[in-house]
Please model this.
Amino acid sequence: LTNIVLETLNDRITPTVHLEALELIASHRAAGRDVIIVSASGSEIVHPVAELLGATDAIATELEVFNGKYTGAITFYAYGENKAIAIREYANKHGYDLSQCFAYSDSMTDLPMLEVVGKPVAVNSDPALRSIASERSWPVLTFEKPVALRRPILDNPEQRRHRLCRRHTAQRRPTSRHPSGCRHLVVIAGP
Model:
């Protein structure tokens, strides 16, 4: 399934993202921060998109595979409180201080995730999240410039297998460090 997603993203679908999001990711990366995409979508889709966006890693819904075939069962559903749990576990495993971490989201369903970091931000948020962000004096961003991503995700199938066919992202240790020596994490939530 991952290979199908990669081929489709490379050859048939031109993903669209807001220019402001790309600039935000680039600025965090330039500052030495790891960028983790967190999404309720399946990992087979989220990992290639995260790679395309230049993210360090991704946390996503995991589907059960038995004898090389999908069973239809979900082993981890990255939604609501589960996103917060996954971020806490990821931070503990990789040495992040969540009070120094950023999180961005557009949905009230991500409130638990936003509450576990020290720097929550609402982006193109639904009315409920916008209201809470206002009450809590969280920054609220509006992204308005959609752009198409046209570069290939990866150059060849061997490179794809090596970099993207990870079954559980928490096993991978991000390598970047903030110039201060502290480890910082940026979490970007997706649908």
